[in-house]
Amino acid sequence: MLFNTFEFWIFLLGVLLLVHLLPHRGQNRVLLVASYLFYAAWDWRFLFLLFLSTVVDFVAAHFAGPSRSTRTRKGAVAISVVVNLGILGVFKYYDFFVTGLCELVGAGSTEVWLLGVVLPVGISFYTFQSIGYTVDVYRERLPCQRSFLDFSLYVSFFPQLVAGPIERAERLLPQIEKPRRVTAEGLESGAWLIAWGLFKKVFIADALAHPVDAVFATGDPTGPCVYLALVAFAVQIYCDFSGYTDIARGVSRWLGFELMENFDRPYVAASPAEFWRRWHISLSTWLRDYLYVPLGGNRRGRASTYRNLFLTMVLGGLWHGARLNFLLWGLYHGLLLALQRAFLGKAEPGATRRGRVVGVVVTFHLTLLGWLLFRVETMQQLGRMVRGLAFSWEFSGAATRILITMVPLVVPLLVVEIVQGRARTSEIFPRPGWPARAFVFGLLLSAVLLLNRGASTPFLYFQF
Questions:
Q1: Is 320 one of the catalytic residues?
Q2: Could you identify which of 108, 122, 138, 363 might form a hypothetical disulfide with 162, taking C-beta atoms 3.0 to 4.6 angstroms apart as the criterion?
Q3: Domain contains 287
Q4: Does residue 375 belong to any structural domain of this protein?
């Protein structure tokens, strides 16, 4: 069930009617049933995995609390990590590693060893969210949850179930446990977020997907085509993923919840470290708090710091999928962070306006090279793209068409983000009068409805 389909909005209408007619405990039960129905619409067979992850961490957290012995507590956390990462390993990485091992030892056909299972949607998100809860109980950041139904809703809450943000238990569980009140302001701001998220997904991301796909499918692309396709992909993946987050946050506000921000204008970052503070914030902070810091962070010398940066970013790359290009993407960003640490230490570029501008331009282009690694599907395709960038810089009609397609799509995005930056807010627009609100809101929804006449395109991060 996609956010950019009418089926979802019919489903959401029924959920909203029931939720606003029931008391608090009834609301939670309706939301839990709705969340499982939402997930079953993708593939009901994988409901078992969602339920297994929920049961394991609900029980593990009860043994990870401060009243237990140290050995019991550590064992409970270990069980949580092993089971959840085991689920990920089997369904997401087993075929990848078996294929690589067979190629390494020179085995023949690998088909007999492969599982060939479909990747369960959202599995990377809810397993990390579930692990985080158990670890937080172990760290005594929150008490273990006594209500299995409330904890089940925390793991499966449908607006953010399949593509995040990866919520922290200390933030989302209190909203589940306590009665919620939906205000007129929440309804309005939620509507703005939903409209802008749909606009970014349908009007910008889906439209840019076509020229990007065409360039990456070209056998001998030119440098300008590759460069413009990378810029277009940078905008596409940002609008696609942040658009999902905006819709999830808006729907949650209609239900009385507040989800965390997952993006903060990442392409104005002046360094690789700042980029990761602004991009996919729920994942980057999860990796920092549950992997980088436990490994030792930057507390044990330079060599240890560089090792921890590389390990963290490699896991971040592989989190996106079991492909060599994601491993290389993680290594590349680990290298960027290590180089920044080596040459700048804890300092950040951009102390002056000119330095800030230079830092943003350099960081954006370093990020583009990373997106090249992220987007390619084979090493042969990567080789073609690199050759085009290095040796073929004649400007062709294909490059002109990409530019003509991209510019009118990027302008509204830039306008909104400039307004957000000046107002220092993540909300979509400052509060204009009602005529301006009605005009802009109607314009956004009209564009979405007009452009959604064809088949709906899944969000990119559903595959992770």
A1: yes
A2: 122
A3: no
A4: no
